[in-house]
Amino acid sequence: MFYSIPPAMQARMQELEARDARERALGLPTAQRLRQVAPDTGRFLALMAAAAPAGTYVEIGTSGGYSTLWIALGARSQGRKVVTFEIDPQKVHLARETFHLAQVEDVVTVIEGDALAHLPALAQIAFCFLDAEKDLYAPCYDLVVPRLCPGGWLIADNVISHREVLQSLVDRALADPRVDALVLPLDRGLLLCRKG
Question: How many CB atoms lie within 10 A of CB 122?
């Protein structure tokens, strides 16, 4: 999978990586820059998406579409599609540009709006990546976990870098009998939850 990334997708990934690095180097405030995962986290998401069971693939927090591309890579390898939610109109525009340039519009649908309003309509979630505003993590967790199919995954980013905000959610997940959960110390920290 990693050795056969289509050239258009690879080019857009590299462009977004370079932009993210520039914006971080300039010290732009978080709200004014791309907020995307590191490449190793992207590769991990692709592997997890490729290994997820059949069902709905969801991303909450699209930003510029970088993590979506990795998820789409895994989803496409299994003949599946991804629905991604983004509330910021400027980031929706950038993500749509990303998906067009990377030639993944056949695999990815971006929905502009609050994921919390759309999640109740979903069922049989096989894969969900959560990387949004941190105050949304707990409500998203509450909506996603009951909708996970057996063997389905909820993966939440930033649980180490934002430990002071997210530790109570991590503790809840680790004690939740509906899922097997652990914290993976990859990049900013990932919470992995698998529905039994």
Answer: 16
